Amino acid sequence: MEGLGGDGGAASPVNQFWHDVWRQYQYFLDKTTPHAVYRWIGSVFIVLIYVLRVYYREGFYIVSYGVGIYLLNLLIGFLSPLVDPEMEVSDGGPLLPTKGSDEFKPFIRRLPEFKFWYSFTKAFCIAFVMTFFPVFDVPVFWPILLCYWIVLFVLTMRRQIAHMIKFKYIPFNIGKQRYGGKKSSASSSGSRGD
């Protein structure tokens, strides 16, 4: 019974091959982490290839709609804070700073940029592969899907922006806001000498 499900023996060559392929893939993925601009340029290139494929095939609109809904979900995660101030209120009040005297806390996303990029790119790669299988080419009237997606996008973004305004956070780290204490006194003292 020791051979069942145990790891007592040597790994099969097939398992070892896939393990090595996965490690190599992870190695290259880790190497791309600090190069955000180049990663996004590559992703835009993949999106262009997908768009050209859908345009020339004149189909797979339902796949594109599915990708659009998935990307909208990713965007919401990317723009949302890790801890929603509406759901979790600490003893001292909201967790995000609301006044200039509050301690600066950088915006921590629910979905980090790297995972957002990875999921974004993976979605378009999977959608591209799906365009080679006619079973996914469901005939639909694409203008209706496009209008429905635009309405969904506008309503979702309006709700997200209202949430940002209500809890006074910006989903981009621009550093701590500086208030003109010393700069204004230095410029006023320079004007007195004239």
TrEMBL record:
Chain coiled-coil ranges: none
Q: How does it sit in the membrane?
A: Multi-pass membrane protein
Source domain of life: Eukaryota
Q: What is its main location?
A: membrane
Q: Name one Pfam family in it.
A: Rer1
- Please give the start and end residues of each transmembrane region: 37-56, 62-83, 140-157
Keyword list (alphabetical) reads: Membrane, Transmembrane, Transmembrane helix
Localization terms from the record: Membrane
Give the CC-aspect GO terms: endoplasmic reticulum; Golgi membrane
A GO BP entry: protein retention in ER lumen
**InterPro entries per the record?**
Rer1
Q: What does this protein do?
A: Involved in the retrieval of endoplasmic reticulum membrane proteins from the early Golgi compartment.
Q: Of which family is this protein a member?
A: Belongs to the RER1 family.
Q: What is this protein called?
A: Protein RER1
